[in-house]
Specification:
Two copies of one chain form a homodimer. Chain A is α+β, with helices and mostly antiparallel strands and 395 residues long. Chain A has two domains: 267 residues, L-amino peptidase D-ALA esterase/amidase (4-Layer Sandwich); 118 residues, Ubiquitin-like (UB roll) (Roll), CATH 3.10.20.340. The first copy, chain A, is built from 13 helices and 16 strands. In chain A, the strands form three sheets. In chain A, strands 1, 2, 3, 4, 5, 6, 7 and 9 form an eight-stranded mixed β-sheet that branches. In chain A, a hairpin with a 2-residue loop joins strand 12 and strand 13. At the A-B interface, helix 3, helix 10, helix 11, strand 14 and helix 13 of A face helix 2, helix 8, helix 9, strand 14 and helix 11 of B.
Chain lengths: 395, 395
């Protein structure tokens, strides 16, 4: 759903812009800015890949000081594996934006997404920074989210309003990413803003928790991009100060989680070439970690992903994947459901009619529930199928 | 290369057969027998999948006694996830074959490959067992290897002769499997025979070592089938007794390894839908285990597999995969070569002309060499690319 469809708007005190700076050769939108009119507290969650992009390193450094004014980003070039020249470019991109906005370079966070290897075209970036500064406005949200896209087929934006003692606190987020198994051209980026005032340490904890229950649930194969970043800014423009443990805190935390979850689901549903969306729920594992390992083994199995392009209830591929996962499995205790339909009981084919199974497995939004019967560990992972179109896109 | 092309023949004292018993509905060959005229010592290496097929359990049990006469197998149905009924069927298949051959049931090893879930059609299996017994002959090797095929496009057989003080010892092996990322319909099976006499414990050690350096080097994603089995029989019909540590031992061990390696390469080259073959060599890792983790991360990355369907030197996807692997990586030390052509130096694009890189990465047999610059750990993994055809086959 596009930002326009939902009338998604920025919280108070935020403006944004999306421009075509010439980083992408086809002339499409390729730079974006989100700026707060006042100093904001900030939080960030980044890729754990040992090979991480220059802008990720710059963000980590800039977040060591307390105040952030803006996020500037480009699509088309990832500025990853670019050495010290790449670091100079990322710092220059932040410094250029800071100069336009009249703030310190370290008050600007910087992101890139696109091809790994090439250096940023700094002439285009420099021009883009000026254009962004001139174009920034409160009504440019959709243009901004479009400028973030690489192989995405649609922009991704979501909004939550939270009532805090009669005052509206707003949360607005943008994301990009098309498929969780695409760490190169389709890095996952998300930017969340709010007009509440939240102290940085608490903000970081809230964002980390929300990411663990949303974006990290769709990183189905551990394939983490060199550039994955989720950033959050809280500028306090609503006049509402939210403190950890206060009466309104839980509602705010829930709104951040719900917003991140909606953005994460938008990414899965825009999976490259995908036309089926699969929730893999594992329960009855020895531990939550074991359940997670089993769920990811199924979700990441290319054999399962290709099976979901058809309509045959190929539950043997699920048995196989949980069997080689790190989770302990006793096959005689395993039960598997497609939605509400029992397919496997005691590790063997259940007495369910084939037509019923075919119907159950043909759902465009497919829930696969796997009971291991060993304990109370539980985990859920969201994924999509793998079609010939995926291979064409990444060819 | 088919068995016929290489004039592959059995060692002395072995006969075999391949028949169409009606397990596969299309009437093609679906049962095979390899029988030794005399008692043979035996060894086996099996899937480590916790969900393992009934025939794997039966083989493990039968190998607890010292003498084996035959291997009987079927393709089309895997007899996996079939519960106690499946165990009864696997035991009955071995017992039926033993009765035909006049030996004990536990002297027969049994394998199945094909669809997970369905029970073995025991009437067809019973008929097949009689047909195999009647058809078994020394010149039926190609027919036998054809009966093992599922999605394989060609039979796989190889032979080695070793001279032991003027006496010829022969090693002959058959394999099936089409793609290392296909644990369901294309279980990997291999059967190795020799007319040397080798004591069972030593035979097991030789086979395990050979499998680790061949078949286990192509299990690129840890996707282990429920049915993967490598079996070896040594019947002593040549009159040559080989003892561990004897003068001729090293030559025999080398021949087993070389035979298994040839069969493993046949499997990679018959990878489903694949048209490019990739050797991923990692060196300079902190340990061999770290090198193995890095090599498998690259070989198993769907993004890399799809990149290898094209001819663009997308080394960023390699950097990304090693970065999220369990191996320690310092990106500033990384070097990557396509064949002899340097693509990455110090973690960034090397000063090699793009045309040169494109040419290097377009090799049908592609060597990717990755230097981590951290130590002396080394590992190699053999894989193939992922094309749209793979998705069509597994759809």
């Amino acid at each position: 759903m596009s930002a326009a469809d939902k009338k998604t708007e920025w919280p108070m005190g935020f403006r944004s812009a999306g421009v075509a700076a010439g980083v992408k050769r086809d002339g499409s939108l390729d730079m974006a800015l989100i700026v707060s009119d006042r100093a904001a507290s900030a939080a960030g969650v980044f890729t754990t890949n040992q090979v991480c992009a220059a802008p990720v390193k710059v963000c980590r450094a800039h977040l060591e000081q307390p105040v952030v004014r803006a996020i500037v980003m480009n699509s088309g070039v990832a500025n990853a594996c670019t050495g010290s020249a790449g670091m100079v470019s990322a710092e220059a991109m932040a410094a250029g934006m800071a100069s336009e906005l009249g703030c310190l370079p370290e008050e600007v966070l910087v992101c890139s997404t696109g091809k790994i290897g090439p250096q940023l075209p700094m002439e285009a970036i420099g021009g883009g920074v000026s254009m962004l500064s001139a174009a920034a406005a409160a009504d440019q949200l959709e243009q901004t989210s479009r400028a973030m896209m690489t192989t995405d087929t649609r922009p991704k934006a979501a909004m939550r309003d939270v009532d805090v003692k009669g005052v509206r606190v707003r949360l607005t987020g943008l994301a990009k990413g098309a498929g969780m198994i695409e760490p190169n051209m389709a890095t996952m980026l998300a930017f969340v803003t709010t007009d509440a005032a939240v102290e940085a340490v608490a903000l970081q904890a809230v964002l980390k928790g929300a990411v663990d229950r949303s974006f990290n649930r769709i990183t189905v194969d551990g394939d983490q991009s060199t550039n994955d970043s989720v950033l959050m800014l809280a500028n306090g423009a609503s006049g509402v100060v939210l403190e950890e443990g206060s009466e309104s805190w839980a509602g705010f935390v829930a709104a951040v989680e719900s917003l991140c979850f909606e953005l994460a689901m938008m990414i899965v549903h825009d999976g490259e070439g995908a036309d089926r969306f699969v929730t893999v729920l594992v329960e009855g594992a020895e531990s939550d970690a074991a359940a997670d390992a089993a769920a990811r083994a199924v979700a990441n199995s290319l054999l399962n992903k290709t099976a979901w392009a058809g309509t045959f209830p190929d539950w043997g591929r699920i048995m196989d994947a949980i069997g080689y996962s790190a989770a302990r499995v006793d096959e005689t205790l395993v039960r598997i459901w497609y939605g509400e339909t029992l397919a496997v009981e005691g590790g063997v084919q259940a007495a369910t009619a084939m037509e019923t199974l075919v119907e159950a497995v043909s759902e465009r939004e497919l829930l696969i529930r796997i009971g291991l019967g060993l304990g109370s560990g539980e985990a859920v992972v969201y994924t999509c199928n793998c079609t010939e179109e995926y291979v064409r896109i990444n060819f």
